[in-house]
């Protein structure tokens, strides 16, 4: 594959960067309900592995949602105010996945799932895409088989399993990454096939993207010039490591007219870091949503 050397360089950048940036009717539950929360499995960044020992899937740009057997929660533990019909026939065992509408629709999805009074017509667009069964005692391969069997048996149209495939080589992995990104996807996830479930950040779950992302706090809004005259030109931000830098790309004209306010936390993407730890090619993604 012609882009393989390019992606290999990106993988090295991303590995280094990971070290640097380290109520209402018909609603299922109460707003402050955090009972029976499940601690999720969290991903590390892919560097280089024997790909044949992993299951690979697309990394969906959705909202993480954990079903504890009774109620649906955000990763934070806060309740998701889904309509009763959405979860009415869910199985009574814990499930982990992503609420998802489609590629490139995160902002629309966020607006739907954050409402305390759910709108049925909006939720009819949402699917719950499974990728884990936290209480299952088997390997990830066994969990994949169980998820497929489970969703087939309950026959809920919006409850699906994220497709998992096996690849033979890193070349195939990078080709899949390239194909997914060209279609508007975010990247890939790799689950170690023989791993047992456990919570916390783990080497058994890896993420692979053509860029890394991180968060920073807006400390100043800098005025634009030329075609951006009268609008925001760039943001001066401070990241979690204390680095201060500007972000001037990735904004729509509407976002430049009404930029993220001082004090807000934004998510930005970048490709590697400089020797001083500053992100290279930092570009705005979105204001961080508090779930």
Structural overview:
The chain has 7 helices and 15 strands. Helix content is 23%, strand content 30%. The two termini are 40 Å apart. A hairpin with a 4-residue loop joins strand 12 (232-239) and strand 13. The protein has 2 domains: 23-208, 2-Layer Sandwich (D-amino Acid Aminotransferase, Chain A, domain 1); 212-287, OB fold (Dihydrolipoamide Acetyltransferase, E2P) (Beta Barrel), CATH 2.40.50. Residues 13-32 have low confidence and may be disordered. Strands 1-10-9-2-8 form a 5-stranded mixed β-sheet. The chain has a 5-stranded mixed β-sheet with strand order 4-3-5-6-7, covered by helices on one side. Strands 13-12-11-14-15 form a 5-stranded antiparallel β-sheet. It is an alpha+beta fold and 291 residues long.
């Amino acid at each position: 594959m012609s882009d393989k050397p390019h992606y290999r360089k990106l993988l090295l950048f991303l590995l280094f960067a990971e070290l640097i940036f380290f109520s209402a009717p018909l609603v299922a539950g109460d707003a402050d309900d955090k009972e029976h929360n499940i601690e999720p499995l969290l991903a590390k960044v892919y560097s280089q592995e024997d790909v044949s020992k992993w299951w690979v899937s697309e990394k969906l740009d959705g909202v993480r949602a954990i079903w504890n057997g009774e109620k649906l929660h955000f990763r934070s533990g806060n309740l998701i105010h889904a309509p009763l019909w959405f979860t009415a026939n869910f199985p009574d065992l814990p499930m982990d996945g992503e609420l998802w509408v489609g590629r490139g629709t995160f902002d629309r999805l966020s607006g739907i799932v954050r409402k305390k009074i759910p709108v049925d017509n909006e939720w009819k667009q949402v699917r719950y895409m499974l990728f884990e069964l936290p209480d299952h005692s088997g390997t990830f391969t066994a969990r994949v088989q169980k998820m497929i069997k489970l969703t087939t048996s309950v026959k809920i149209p919006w409850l699906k399993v994220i497709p998992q495939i096996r690849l033979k080589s890193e070349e195939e992995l990078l080709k899949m990454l390239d194909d997914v990104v060209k279609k508007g996807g975010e990247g890939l996830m790799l689950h170690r096939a023989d791993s047992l479930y456990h919570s916390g950040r783990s080497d058994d779950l890896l993420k692979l993207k053509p860029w890394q992302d991180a968060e920073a706090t807006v400390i100043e809004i800098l005025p634009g010039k030329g075609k951006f005259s009268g609008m925001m030109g760039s943001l001066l931000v401070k990241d979690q490591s204390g680095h201060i830098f500007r972000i001037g790309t990735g904004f729509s004209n509407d976002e430049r007219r009404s930029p993220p306010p001082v004090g807000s936390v934004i998510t930005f993407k970048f490709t590697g870091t400089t020797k001083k730890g500053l992100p290279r090619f930092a570009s705005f993604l979105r204001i961080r949503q508090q779930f």
